[in-house]
Write a structure and sequence with these properties.
It is built from 16 helices and 16 strands. The protein is of the alpha/beta class. It folds into 2 domains: about 90 residues, Aspartate Aminotransferase, domain 1, CATH 3.90.1150; about 240 residues, Type I PLP-dependent aspartate aminotransferase-like (Major domain) (Aspartate Aminotransferase, domain 2), CATH 3.40.640.10. It has a 7-stranded mixed β-sheet with strand order 6-12-11-10-9-7-8, with helices on both faces. A 4-stranded mixed β-sheet has the order 3-4-5-14. The radius of gyration is 25 Å and the shape is globular. Pyridoxal-5'-phosphate (PLP) binds next to helix 6.
């Protein structure tokens, strides 16, 4: 073959590879069908390729069956150490029955936003019961915790105001802050000195502005606690407000659904208390709890509440059942079991007793976190490798989350597999 012809052929094959994707092939003739990629898909596939090369590509894993902490994936039984179902309520028969009864009674969907015609007695009762269990005057339920954050923050602050966030605050808290247009200041994780200097700066430079501090109580990827008492003292001293995200504390810390704020007797001193209904409560949704006037204001101003179809009433019914269980003696027993599991795994790993159900094992590189997660999966344990941007660069990790539904034998087996991993076996 003439060399210029060969070059032209190579060029057109290259063009095909870059601009067209295979949509089918005939196994008998071996012929391949191409479809032309549009420029957007072309650009996105290059970006995906870059993610793959830097070990940052994500893909969805299909679960074929789920029974408590046991998952069936690709025909194999795997013990799940990746969920936030801390009390094992996602498979509780009382919640499933409440959801089924809710659907029979109300139908499957709310059919409109809450302000149009989507507020059922089920939603109203859920909010009353949630506020009463939390120890606040009122509460407002959103379709997710993320929607609670992205609706509430821009409703409360805007241009001319300041939001001060912990460095490890969840993405939805950062997104809500960006959407608000307020000036954003970040303090190093749990660094009270830096928080105080940001508060002083905010007061000096924005004398008429509002100042909102936002933190989590139990941090989602580290499992440690915020120094909440000190943060509350600081915000009062500097005339700021506090929004506390208790997503990973509710049902784990404090009694009932009171979280860390309840455990430390701070419920009355925190203006905006946020939580989710999809983690320890085992259903889905998010909420803000606080004063009646705060809730009435959010009904009028939180865009993710106003311009979105309400959560299904069947979901609201299941959430009511979840709160009932968490606040009962059974809830206390499940929490005690979970605390026992946390102490047990910490002792097996020879670490300080963890402060929550989240135990991170920091590995550093994305590559290592992925390799270890794969190795554990092959050994029968689902422990996710958490990578940038969920955690800062060079802090990729395995995130073990415990549930009251685990058995001591499953935890012992996981600890063995983790130790084999650290010894490189
Ligand atoms: C700390 C924290 N806040 C908020 C959320 C968002 O809650 P939801 O999953 O209900 O949207 C999450 C979820 O992962 C979280 O970890």
């Amino acid at each position: 073959m003439k060399s210029h012809f060969k070059a032209a052929l190579a060029q057109s094959v290259e063009h095909l590879i870059r601009n067209e994707r295979v949509i089918g092939s005939n196994p008998i003739s071996g012929s391949i069908t191409f479809s032309r990629m549009n420029p957007l898909d072309n650009m996105l596939s290059e970006e995906l390729q870059r993610l793959t090369e830097s070990n940052l590509r994500r893909s969805l894993r299909i679960i074929d069956r789920s029974e408590g902490v046991l998952l069936t994936i690709s025909g194999r039984e795997i013990v799940n150490f990746s969920s936030n179902d801390y009390l094992g309520l996602a498979s509780h028969p009382a919640l499933a029955e409440a959801m089924a009864e809710g659907a029979r009674r109300w139908g499957t969907g709310a059919t409109a936003s809450r302000l149009i015609c989507g507020t059922t007695a089920e939603h109203a009762s859920l909010e009353e019961e949630l506020a009463s269990a939390k120890g606040t005057a009122a509460s407002l339920v959103f379709s997710t915790g993320a929607a609670a954050a992205t609706g509430t923050i821009p409703a409360l602050v805007g241009r001319g105001d300041v939001v001060i966030l912990d460095k490890l605050a969840h993405a939805c808290l950062i997104d809500g802050t960006h959407a608000s247009g307020a000036k954003m200041r970040v303090f190093p994780h749990n660094d009270l000195g830096k928080l105080e200097s940001h508060l002083r700066w905010a007061r000096e430079t924005h004398p008429d502005g509002k100042i909102l501090i936002i933190t989590e109580s139990v941090f989602s990827m580290d499992g440690d606690l915020a120094p909440l008492r000190e943060i509350v003292d600081l915000k009062e001293r500097h005339g700021a407000w506090l929004m506390l995200d208790e997503a990973h504390a509710v049902g784990v810390r404090g009694t009932g659904i009171q979280g860390l704020a309840g455990e430390l007797g701070l419920i009355d001193r925190i203006e905006i208390q946020m939580g989710t209904l999809g983690k320890a409560l085992g259903v889905s949704g998010g909420y803000i709890a606080g004063s009646r006037v705060l809730i009435d204001f959010l009904v009028n101003r939180a865009r993710s509440f106003i311009f979105s179809t309400a959560p299904s009433p069947a979901v609201a019914a299941a959430c009511r059942a979840a709160i009932k269980v968490v606040c009962s003696e059974e809830g206390d027993r499940r929490r005690a079991t979970l605390r026992g599991h946390i102490a047990f795994l910490s002792s097996l790993l020879r670490t300080e007793p963890a402060e929550s159900a989240i135990i991170p094992l920091i590995l550093g590189s994305e590559e290592r976190a992925l390799a270890e997660a794969t190795r554990l999966f092959e050994a029968g344990f689902f422990v996710p490798g958490i990578r940038y941007p969920t955690v800062p660069k060079n802090t990729a990790r395995l995130r073990v989350s415990l549930s009251a539904a685990h058995s001591p034998e499953q935890i012992r087996a996981l600890a063995g597999a983790l130790q084999r991993s650290s010894q490189g076996v």
